[in-house]
Amino acid sequence: MKLRKYEFARVLGARSLQIASGAYILVEPEEDTALKLAYKEIVENKVPLKPVRRREG
Predict the structure, then answer these.
(1) What are the mean pLDDT values of the chain's consecutive 10-residue runs (57 residues total)?
(2) pTM exceeds 0.90 for this model
């Protein structure tokens, strides 16, 4: 599932907060900030978070 821009921002923020709090990192930790690590996880489709889309109508 391709993330929309607001979903991407929400997942990026949530995952970077988890990484900063000590969560397990799913990619090689080459970067130094939690935000960069979370971005890399999303780009490589390794992030364990998925948004819930509700259908209206």
Answers:
(1) 88 94 91 91 88 80
(2) no
